[in-house]
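Practice problem 4.
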């Protein structure tokens, strides 16, 4: 069965938080959407995969679509990706596959699951709901490549990723899981000795400014891009700003202009979220003890996807509604306040107007000089001497190790398995060698030929 093969191969969502794919596909849906929108600036991976593995992507989409019983199989990507459209179109034609290409404008966040479902299917996803609630399954294009391999019996052991930004040569890399991130950075030749790093894209990626933390990072199943920026770049500097200061600034500088709300993708899809109101009242948060009142004042924050559009694009004062919402989401969780979900939001007319164009976004983020330089079609492979493989590279419970220290493993051999019945994913050795160390969290393998 398709989901058994996918489970055996340890496939997880390549484009997001790493939801185990065999669980996601244990469903029926009328529409499968392959997400190739790659909407954050300076990420190259999905485009590379579309150009290079178009036939594999089409074959996998077809198999997954049939498994789901989907009457519609759609690959959604931006209309400006002409080479990728050509490659996918050729593969669809060659295979005679019932797959359509859905072309989108270049805006952020075109790749947001809820936006993509709304645009492709015309159905609003419920607040904090998943596309399946309206009959759709959305999978990233990288996940499709993983599924294709899984159907040939090949487990996930490698990762494609781009390295972009302040580097001498932006590159596409194919590396074993567990490769030190520093190896990838060096392959792109940093433009300066000191730099900040964003793992992922500039809008939603994880900011790392500490050299020690960067040195400890490894490539995981969910790593798709590394973005280098000069030390102290405004994008990384603002992420370091203490929350206390963020809240103080909200209190003193918010104009109540509503730009954050008007641009908010969740607000536009009809969800109950108005970041400008939260910004107005957040300074009272610590005084609000009554739970009903707390929910009334701050419950909207639960619907925030943390896409960053409000703070990095919309706000004329450089304030941070996203940081405030993220803080309040955590507080709602800690207080055990379960904010009710609207199951049938009504999309606002503004969903199609005044979208945040990618080029304007690049300019506002101070990334224009890097956006002109691309990784190209060459893909370098790295062969690190050692890999470090955490057993939790996915949402859910960590995989449980099945090997002991000192054991020899072949590339692709099972290293840790998903606990029976739990939301989890298998993990396989990404290189052949000897297990130098292994505990409940991770394994280190030293290469040996
Ligand atoms: S980060 Fe801002 S724009 Fe994005 S969903 Fe949250 S409030 Fe809306
Ligand atoms: S966009 Fe900025 S200034 Fe305007 S309401 Fe939102 S947080 Fe306040």
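Answer key:
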């Amino acid at each position: 069965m398709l989901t058994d093969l996918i489970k055996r191969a340890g496939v997880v969502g390549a484009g997001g938080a790493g939801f185990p794919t065999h669980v996601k596909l244990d469903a029926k849906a009328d529409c499968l959407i392959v997400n190739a929108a790659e909407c954050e600036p300076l990420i190259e991976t999905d485009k590379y995969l579309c150009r290079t593995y178009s036939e594999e992507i089409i074959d996998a989409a077809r198999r997954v679509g049939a498994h789901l019983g989907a009457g519609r199989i759609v690959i959604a990507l931006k209309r400006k990706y002409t080479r990728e459209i050509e490659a996918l179109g050729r593969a669809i034609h060659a295979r005679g596959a019932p797959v359509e290409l859905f072309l989108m404008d270049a805006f952020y966040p075109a790749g947001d699951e809820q936006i993509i479902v709304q645009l492709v299917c015309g159905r609003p996803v419920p607040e904090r709901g998943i596309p399946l609630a309206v009959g759709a399954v959305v999978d990233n294009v990288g996940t499709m490549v993983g599924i294709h391999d899984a159907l040939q019996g090949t487990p996930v052991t490698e990762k494609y990723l781009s390295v972009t930004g302040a580097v001498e040569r932006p590159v596409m890399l194919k590396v074993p899981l567990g490769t030190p991130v520093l190896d990838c950075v060096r392959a792109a030749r940093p433009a300066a000795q000191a730099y900040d790093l964003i793992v992922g894209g500039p809008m939603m990626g994880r900011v790392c400014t500490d050299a020690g933390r960067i040195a400890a990072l490894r490539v995981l199943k969910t790593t798709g891009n590394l973005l280098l920026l000069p030390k102290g770049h405004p994008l990384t500097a603002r992420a370091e700003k203490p929350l206390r200061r963020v809240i103080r600034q909200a209190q003193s500088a918010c104009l109540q202009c509503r730009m954050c709300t008007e641009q908010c993708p969740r607000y536009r899809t009809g969800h109950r979220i108005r970041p400008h109101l939260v910004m107005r009242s957040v300074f009272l948060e610590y005084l609000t003890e009554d739970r009903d009142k707390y929910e009334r004042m701050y419950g909207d924050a639960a619907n925030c996807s943390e896409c960053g559009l409000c703070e990095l694009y919309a706000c004329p004062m450089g304030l941070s509604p996203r940081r405030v919402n993220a803080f309040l989401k955590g507080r709602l969780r800690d207080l055990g306040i379960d904010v009710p979900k609207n199951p049938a939001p009504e999309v606002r007319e503004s969903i199609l107007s005044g979208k945040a164009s990618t080029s304007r976004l690049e300019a506002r983020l101070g990334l224009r000089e890097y956006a002109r330089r691309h990784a190209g079609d060459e893909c370098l492979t790295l062969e690190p001497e050692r890999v470090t493989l955490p057993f939790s590279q996915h949402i859910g419970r960590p995989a449980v190790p099945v090997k002991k220290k000192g054991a020899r493993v072949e590339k692709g051999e099972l290293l840790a398995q998903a606990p029976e019945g739990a939301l989890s994913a298998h993990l396989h050795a990404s290189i052949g060698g000897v297990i130098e160390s292994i505990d409940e969290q991770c394994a280190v393998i030293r290469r040996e030929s």
